[in-house]
Every structure is written in structure tokens, then in C-alpha cells.
Write a structure and sequence with these properties.
The complex is a heterodimer. Chain A contains 13 helices and 14 strands. Chain A is of the alpha/beta class. The termini of chain B are far apart. Classes of the chains: A alpha/beta, B alpha/beta.
């Protein structure tokens, strides 16, 4: 039986793991129970800063602490990170201060709170900022590993985590496999490559199973880092498969699909089908229902793969 | 304190000359807010700031955050007076590749602790510096200068609330209350009502002074540093004159962000005692 877990739990665990580093501080905006920074707060209240419901202030408090030698991890809902976009832009990215922002509850998968809480543009907006690393891991193991690595980076970052549980895809005992900026080929195929992030990685694996039943061998890649994009891996997939699909619980505009498209048009080109939220807002619904009505679930990814192959 | 009132006033006068020269050379920039803040900056830097001009990144330095970062000529002028940068560097103001970027930038200019230019951000950054100092068990302080028009940004009040909540006695704000913002007088753009009462209500220690009277400025800085005010953040509300020191710029919204022409430049140099009439 596949273990199920939420990526936000991996984030919370990583903060605890990082606590031995006395420079690590945690910033909250009244959502620590949800983003899972609360475990750090309980264990290390002296290194946790409550900023109240004030995301703009939180990010710049982080900037001031980063400029003073600390390693701030700030979190809130993905949607509310967007309120502080200009603080991220002018106060963090521009002076290149290593503040690490985590937006939990990203995407339509977050479910029944409805469209106001379903960020579908966070990856796009933060991807436009120079210096900022942008990630959207697919399970708690990789989220934990990637968050741990952030403490050693010198660039600011944005990481989206998800509210709901998804299948855990990585073995705990795989050190070195999960690295910022390196996509991971979970399954190797020659006919089409499905490049996915976040909650759609497991859906892509299901899609690959469906395709396999039809004799189509699909490669499935966990592209947990959208920026910097692992262009070398994309080039290799183009060379081997000749057709690409991207899959993300995010607007088709500006996210992983756009990142891959930007890369292949400037390098070696292949047909690309982009599975993502079709430029519309969400609504209240269960996570699986949202993936269905947004055309993001495994059958939609499989259909996109067939289209991509048909365009070879 | 070794620096006399007269000496600080002379530093401020020299800074005013450089401010006008910078904006005149660039034919762009923000003279009004630079002139209103400069007496405060001269006093703060020459008598209070624990900094090392030859070691600008010294970890335990006091921080100064010019949140109204467009008033950069004033900052550059005092940094040159203090020896962080040279007077030659001042010629790079708004010039490609220059250390004196249009708005103060920590990545470009030694002695600048915050990349400003977007209003409403510096107080939050200063709060982060103050929290870090507390965690480090350091005596260093974070001084932040904000503008009055800037207080219209909501994020200022997020920071005001949070800094008081965290009882940041090492966070010291100076408000350059020059009464003018980009388009017009502040009271025309957005009425301010009782500014001292607002800050008191947010939990701050508050004092008002004349921001061009050097004796009052020194009393105001004493207030910011006073032990009895270390229980939480403090703000010095300095009533100033936008364009202060240059007759035709004073209280003139047109010189928020405009450069003097040739005749105006000559007149400014005469008024500042640089050249004979």
C-alpha cells in the first residue's frame, strides 16, 4: 500500500531538522498550523517570529534578518504570498537576500475553500523574478530534502506545497537523488515524456500506466524545480522521446509548461502539450473533483500524451 | 559628545551643497526630501551611528535604513562626509554603473544597508534587523527614516503593529514630516489627522521636534537612545521643511522630484554660501 502524505508535512519536518543551525529562523503570518511551521514554533519559540496576518511585513522582516546573517523561512498560504509579491521583488529578490518563502495550499487541489484560496499563478509570478529559485515538490520526502538544502543556498526561494495528501513516491533512503535544480526521471520511456510537478506527478505516473496498456512507453519526470529549469534533462527527453507533455496544477500560463516551452523553442524543439488549469478560476470541490473539472487528472494527461505523439 | 552643534550644522550645509549639485548634474532626482532630512542625517551620523566607514559591512554596526529611498542625494552626501564613499563618487548619481543609484541600494553603495525605492518597506526591514540584533544579543540598533507621505502605505502599519508587539526597543524611527509628497501637500492627497496619537496608539514611544533646530534634534536623538524608552520601539517625529535651505524649493511641491535650472543652481550656491552673490 502506497503511503499517503502531504508535502506541507515534509516542510514542517525539515524545519525541525534544520533547527540545529542556530541561524535558522521561522516567520509566520497566523497560518503556522496550516503550513506546518508550528512544530518549529513549539520547539523553538525564541527563533519564531509571529507577524500576525501581515504577509508584506513578514517578507521584509525576513529580508532584514537575512541581511543580518540569519536564514529565514517564511510561510503562509500560496495565495497570500502573492499579496507580498512586490516585497519579494524589491526587498528580497533585487538585493538577492536568501529568504525562503513557502506557499502552502497551492493549486486547485487545495479544494473546498474555493477559488479565493486556490493559487493558480504563484509559480508564474515568482518565476519572473531574477535570483529566485522556484520549486513545487511532489511528496513529503522530496519536500523535506529540498527544504533542507535551501538552508545552504545563497539565493531566495519560493516553494509551493500542497494541502492534501498524495502518494509518497520516494524512498526515505535515497540520499543525493533529490537535488535543487535537477529533475528526476521516475519512469523511463521512449515514446513520450511527461514532465510534471507537485500533485500531478503521481497523476502522471497513473497516466503512464494507462498508456503502457496501449503499448505506449512514457517517461515520467518529477520536475520539482521550475527555476532554474533542468534544461539538460529536457534536451535529453526531446532527443529520446520526441514529444513532451507538461502537467501542473497551475494556470497553463506561466508555470512549468511555459518554462519547458521557453526552453525547447530556444534549443531543440519537440511537440509539447501542456496540461494545466485552463486559464480559469477554480471553485469549491474535493481535490479529486477539482483535478477532474480542471482537466488535470491522469486520463487528461494520457490524452495529452497521445496528442503529443500524434504531432511528431 | 565631541562634535559641536556648529560643526554638525556645517556638515549639513556641505551636504546641502552636494545634494543640489547631484540633482543639478543629473537633471533629475529628489532634492526636496533630501534637504528636509539632511539636518537629521548629519546629526545622526556624526554623533550617534556606531559604524566603521572603512569597514562598511562590520557585522555589529548600527543599521540605517532610508525607507524614503528616493531621497538618496541626502544619504549619499552624508555617506561622503563620513568617508564611506568619496566626493568623486557623488558624480555617479543616476549615471550608468555608478555607486550612487537613483534610489539607495545596498548592492551598489558602501554604507547603504537597505535597497529602497519602493515606499512602505524600510520599517519592516528595520524590524528584521532589530530582531536579528536581539537574537545575537548585540547592542546594535536599527534606525529607520520614513516619510510622512509614506505612511499612507498600509504595510507601514503592519510593521508598526508588529514592532510594538515584539517590544523592539532597539528599533528607532525618525519621521521626516515635511508635509509634501509627489503630487501635492500630504493633507491634500490623504489627510493625516493626529500622527503622534496614531503612533502612540500602536504602542510606540513618541516625541516631536523641529527637524531643522540642531539643539532639538540632539534632544530628539537622546530620546531615541534613552534607557527609559528601551521597552519598545520609539519614533521621533521631526517637523521639517521640504526643500529646506533653498528659498525657492522650500514648501514647494514642484521640487519634490525636479532639478534646478542653471539660474536656480547659481542661486542655491549663493544661498548656501558657496559662492558670492
Amino acid at each position: 500500500m502506497t503511503r499517503m502524505a502531504a508535502t506541507r508535512d515534509g516542510y514542517g519536518q525539515a524545519l525541525l531538522d534544520l533547527a540545529d543551525n542556530e541561524k535558522v529562523v521561522v516567520l509566520e503570518a497566523d497560518l503556522g498550523k496550516s503550513t506546518k511551521s508550528l512544530h518549529f514554533r513549539k520547539a523553538h519559540p525564541e527563533r519564531t517570529v509571529s507577524c500576525g496576518i501581515g504577509e508584506q511585513n513578514m517578507l521584509l522582516v525576513g529580508a532584514g534578518m537575512a541581511a543580518s546573517g540569519y536564514i529565514p523561512f517564511a510561510s503562509t498560504f500560496a495565495i497570500f504570498t502573492e499579496r507580498a509579491f512586490e516585497q519579494m521583488r524589491n526587498g528580497i529578490a533585487r538585493p538577492n537576500l536568501a529568504v525562503h518563502l513557502c506557499g502552502s495550499h497551492g493549486g486547485t487541489h487545495t479544494g473546498t475553500d474555493g477559488s479565493s484560496a486556490q493559487s493558480i499563478e504563484d509559480l508564474a509570478v515568482f518565476r519572473t523574478l531574477p535570483n529566485v529559485v522556484v520549486m513545487h515538490p511532489c511528496d513529503d520526502v522530496s519536500t523535506r530534502a529540498l527544504t533542507m538544502q535551501l538552508a545552504d543556498t545563497t539565493s531566495p526561494s519560493y516553494m509551493r506545497t500542497a494541502r492534501n495528501k498524495t502518494p509518497v513516491l520516494y524512498d526515505e533512503a535515497a540520499p543525493g537523488l533529490i537535488q535543487i535544480g535537477k529533475g528526476i526521471e521516475l519512469q523511463t520511456g521512449n515514446d513520450v515524456a511527461i514532465i510534471a510537478c507537485g500533485v500531478l506527478v503521481s497523476e502522471s505516473l497513473k497516466a503512464a500506466e494507462m498508456l503502457a496498456a496501449e503499448g505506449i512507453n512514457a517517461s515520467v519526470v518529477d520536475m520539482h524545480t521550475l527555476k532554474p529549469l533542468d534544461g539538460g534533462l529536457v534536451d535529453a527527453l526531446v532527443a529520446r522521446c520526441g514529444a513532451l507533455v507538461t502537467a501542473e496544477d497551475h494556470n497553463v500560463i506561466g508555470g512549468l509548461g511555459s518554462a519547458v516551452a521557453e526552453h525547447i523553442v530556444a534549443n531543440v524543439f519537440a511537440p509539447l502539450e501542456m496540461v494545466g488549469v485552463p486559464d480559469r478560476f477554480g471553485e469549491s470541490g474535493q481535490a479529486d473533483e477539482m483535478l477532474e473539472i480542471m482537466s488535470l487528472s491522469a486520463p487528461h494527461i494520457a490524452a495529452a500524451a497521445r496528442r503529443a505523439i500524434g504531432r511528431k | 559628545m565631541s562634535t559641536s552643534i556648529e560643526e554638525i550644522e556645517e556638515i549639513a550645509r556641505k551636504c546641502r551643497v552636494e545634494i543640489v549639485k547631484m540633482v543639478y548634474r543629473a537633471q533629475a532626482g529628489h532634492p526636496g526630501g533630501s534637504l528636509s532630512e539632511i539636518d537629521l542625517l548629519a546629526a545622526l551620523y556624526s554623533t550617534r551611528m556606531k559604524v566603521r566607514p572603512d569597514e562598511p559591512k562590520w557585522a555589529d554596526r548600527d543599521r540605517f535604513i532610508l525607507s524614503k529611498g528616493h531621497a538618496s542625494p541626502g544619504m549619499y552626501a552624508i555617506l561622503a562626509e563620513m568617508g564611506f564613499i568619496s566626493h568623486e563618487d557623488l558624480k555617479s548619481y543616476r549615471v550608468l554603473g555608478g555607486v550612487c543609484q537613483g534610489h539607495v541600494d545596498m548592492k551598489w553603495c558602501p554604507g547603504v544597508d537597505f535597497s529602497a525605492g519602493s515606499l512602505g518597506m524600510g520599517l519592516s526591514f528595520g524590524m528584521g534587523c532589530a530582531l536579528a540584533a536581539r537574537l545575537d544579543k548585540s547592542e546594535r540598533r536599527a534606525f529607520v527614516m520614513i516619510g510622512d507621505g509614506e505612511m499612507q502605505e498600509g504595510s507601514v502599519w503592519e510593521a508598526a503593529m508588529a514592532a510594538a508587539h515584539h517590544e523592539l526597543g532597539n528599533l528607532k524611527v525618525i519621521l521626516d514630516r515635511n508635509r509634501i509628497q509627489n503630487d501635492d501637500f500630504c493633507e491634500e492627497q490623504m489627510r493625516m489627522f493626529d500622527i503622534p496619537a496614531k503612533w502612540r496608539a500602536f504602542g510606540w514611544n513618541v516625541k516631536e521636534i523641529d527637524g531643522h533646530n540642531m539643539a532639538e534634534i540632539m534632544e530628539g536623538l537622546d530620546f531615541l537612545e534613552a534607557e527609559e524608552n528601551s521597552n519598545g520601539p520609539s519614533i521621533l517625529i521631526a517637523h521639517t521643511i521640504k526643500g529646506g535651505g533653498i528659498s525657492y524649493m522650500e514648501n514647494n511641491p514642484a521640487f519634490h522630484g525636479a532639478a534646478p535650472n542653471d539660474d536656480q543652481f547659481k542661486q542655491a550656491m549663493i544661498e548656501l554660501g558657496e559662492v558670492e552673490a
